[in-house]
Design brief:
Layout (H helix, E strand, L loop, with lengths): L9 H6 L8 E2 L10 H17 L7 H16 L6 E4 L2 H11 L7 E5 L4 H14 L2 E5 L5 H11 L4 E7 L11 H9 L4 E5 L11 H4 L3 E5 L11 E5 L1 H4 L12 E5 L4 E4 L13 H17 L1 H20 L4 E3 L11 E6 L4 H12 L1 E2 L1 E3 L4 E5 L6 H16 L2
Parallel strand pairs: 1-13, 3-4, 3-5, 5-6, 6-7
Antiparallel strand pairs: 2-8, 7-8, 9-10, 11-12, 12-15, 14-15
Length: about 400
């Protein structure tokens, strides 16, 4: 069995996730789980903060700001450019609700977007009269540039897409797509829900105007944590749909002064769940100790190991690009003659293997992360073999 190339043995890592004693957890692409040390620190902080309020000595706000700095270092941007949100969908809505739309404006999206992008755009389509132009996904830069060009028009305002698609786990050529858009004055929104925490993701390398992501998936943070980034050049183009205490740098009721912060703070207001972001900081520190490069290499290994197993079986059909450079920790496949929903239930019934169903393709999606191992993959494949052999 391959181990994470750090000083920490992989079985020690696995022991910090009690869920792995109860089954095979292959769905962090939906909900991640917190490592025991981070969870313990988080719960202690929540208890102390909620018991003592302003008497608290936990330093919850300082810890949340430390998490903001850690995220900015992970993304290669300034901490002031990071806005804490509840999830990736919040960031999408900050963009879509913050821009001024005219009927007939167009947004290019892919045919494998999550509801986090599709549903807000559907609402804008109905309420504002915008148009959605869908393109097929490909990991190839030339192909994606051509797909974009095929549907672009003088009314195209925004290119919105997932860095890694939630359906087939295809890693899109984000930098090339964003450059194509920038050359034409088209804004770009990148959903990093399935890439952040999997492989190196630097904002400057991508070149997007807006970026949104989650803390509760691959970053192993608490549910209810998300991030939003906007480039300094585009920040002032967004008009916050909601403003409250904390949004304004300068405010005066008598004079009417109302100056928003010229940073991501303009989107944060009111009493917030600060403990959640401090909790995310504990997870980030724990992952940093494992080493981000080590995590990426390990996820790549397990992804390749799983794909090799799938490709060796004629009754399984891989939908995810085989090279890790064109994919991520997500692997999607179809099993002959099986409804994916029923197959998911059968995997749980037989071996407590937790997966994700992709209805669009009648497929099963697997997430392999740093706490999984080859034995988890073998259990999945052995169970599928048993099901197939009973036909």
């Amino acid at each position: 069995m391959t181990t994470i190339p750090t000083l920490t043995k992989h079985e020690t890592v696995r022991s910090l996730f009690p869920a792995l004693e109860t089954g095979v957890y292959l769905n962090v692409g939906t909900y991640g789980i917190m490592p025991a040390p981070a969870l313990s620190s988080f719960l202690e902080l929540v208890e102390e903060y909620e018991r003592f309020g302003l008497f608290s000595t936990s330093g919850v706000h300082q810890k949340a700001e430390a998490a903001r700095v850690a995220l900015s270092q992970l993304l290669g941007c300034e901490a002031t450019q990071i806005t804490f949100t509840g999830n990736a969908t919040d960031g999408t809505n900050l963009v879509l609700a913050g821009l001024t739309w005219q009927a007939g404006d167009e947004v290019i999206v892919t045919d494998e977007e999550h509801e986090a992008i599709n549903h807000p755009l559907l609402y804008l389509q109905r309420s504002k009269g915008i148009r959605m132009r869908r393109i097929k996904v490909s990991p190839e830069p030339d192909v994606m540039r051509q797909h974009c060009a095929d549907v672009a028009s003088e009314r195209t305002r925004l290119l919105a897409f997932s860095h890694v698609t939630c359906e087939t786990g295809t890693r899109l050529p984000a930098a090339e797509m964003c450059l194509w858009a920038a050359e034409r004055g088209i804004l770009t929104l990148v959903d990093g829900a399935q890439s952040l925490g999997v492989f190196k993701t630097h904002i400057d390398d991508i070149g997007c105007d807006f970026y949104t992501g989650n803390g509760h998936k691959w970053l192993s943070g608490p549910k209810g944590t998300g991030i939003f980034y906007t480039s300094p050049a585009r920040l002032l183009e967004l008009s916050p749909a909601h403003v409250g205490a904390g949004s304004l740098e300068h405010a005066n009721v008598d004079s009417g002064q109302a100056d928003l912060w010229t940073s991501g703070r303009r989107f944060e207001f009111g009493t917030r769940a600060t403990s959640l972001y401090a909790g995310l900081g504990y997870s980030l520190a724990w992952l940093e100790n494992l080493g981000w490069d080590n995590i990426e290499q390990y996820i790549a290994h397990l992804s390749n190991y799983l794909k090799t197993k799938i490709l060796a079986r004629s009754y399984l059909h891989l939908l995810t690009p085989q090279p890790f450079a064109q994919s991520s920790g997500l692997t999607t496949f179809v099993m002959d003659a099986w409804d994916a929903g029923k197959l998911s239930q059968e995997l749980m019934r037989r071996a407590r293997v937790r997966v994700r169903v992709i209805p669009h393709y009648n497929a099963i999606r697997i997430s392999t992360t740093y706490f999984n191992n080859e034995a988890d993959v073998d259990m999945l494949i052995d169970t599928l073999d048993a099901i197939e052999n009973e036909k």
